[in-house]
Amino acid sequence: MGRRVVLAVFGCLLIAAFVTPATAQQQPRGPVVTPNIQVTSDILPGRIHTEPQMLVHPTDPNVLVIAEVDFNRSACGIHVSLDRGRTWAKAPAEAMPPGYKACTRPNFGSFFAAKFGIDGTLYLAGTAGLNASSSGPNDPYVARTKDLGRTWQYSIIKKSEERDFPKADGTSTRDFERFGYIRLAVHPTDPSRVYVGYRRQGAFQPVAQASERSVVSVSTDGGATFSLPTDVLETSYALTDVKGSDQPAMAVAEDGTIYAFTKERPPLSTAPGVTQAALPLPPGPANACRAASANPAAQPWVPTPVPSSIPTVGQPGAGSRLFMSKSTDNGKTWKANTIDTSGVICGPCLTTPEAAIAAWPQCGGRTTWRSVDSTASLFGKILNRQPKSPRPGSGGATIGTAPTGATIAPDSRAHSVV
Q1: Which residue of 11, 84, 143, 185 pairs with 95 in a disulfide if CB–CB is 3.0 to 4.6 A?
Q2: Geometric angle at alpha carbon 351, from 186 and 360, rounded to 5°
Q3: Which carries the bigger pLDDT value, residue 400 or residue 220?
Q4: Is 0.70 surpassed by the pTM of this model?
Q5: Which of 149-153, 387-391, 410-414 has the highest average model confidence (pLDDT)?
């Protein structure tokens, strides 16, 4: 009898070992796709729901947030789902600082930015003003909520003030400050550190008269207070070299190092004052920024040949460079270097960058940046390690090739600080 029991138990073990895996393989795998859900039901015309941003709670995947702006009312708010997006409700309070009438402007972007901190605090960065005009002064601010928009607390980073704006010819002009093109980042392990970036420009004067600059402010107390905005390029490049720069895309490493990516922004050729001429259009059908076709029957892509006389940076006909600025002291000081110059001869190639830290086990932490426009996607990988042989003027960074084993898309360029 005892022997029969032992054999029976052994037989059950065989069934568990050989039948169960086969049964498991027959179960469907992959993501479960739910039907489309309509978040709002209003049918008002106009630009009512602009630049929506989807966020997932860092500790509860059931909680989703859509942050958006309403241009009809110049208001900023969020919609919340507690069941992974199956149902939605608008948060009862809007992220508008007291005493202001607008949290966004009616054209150009990015209008605002939103991020979850690792502790579940939701941050929304914007610009507060007395109206939604596309000119005039405004004040950068960060709103935060710990209860999914039932209540908000606010930090005004600085009040717009009249100041001297440097000009590309070495002189200066006075104007009030205007902030826009907003970026937001949070520390990956420290909930007390929050980072916000803006493009600062003159409130009334054209960009050719008041230089646009990339600035970053840092909070070390969970968004309660922020440092004054610091220019991420001015200590590394003379204004006569970089006449203007755009919004800073930020990535933050666990050791607190901040990486800010921004593109050069030359004055518009139609603006009065010191200008740069528009780049000549490349001959069709090839385009220096066009990605390789996914159609096997398509003709091979041939880049537009580089002109025999390459435009010089800062001169008429030149386009944009891409810069990486680095800070290791919570944004107090910055060192910047040029990581891509393809935009000098191809204006649309370098536009709004995105940045994130991606872990590559064989290399340690990496900062990955991406620049996107209507004709191409441009990728780069910046290796976060001590430099082997710093290049003069690079701020301790060297630009090399992608590491062995890295896969680069046909329409991509990769760079590594090694």
Answers
A1: 143
A2: 50
A3: 220
A4: yes
A5: 149-153
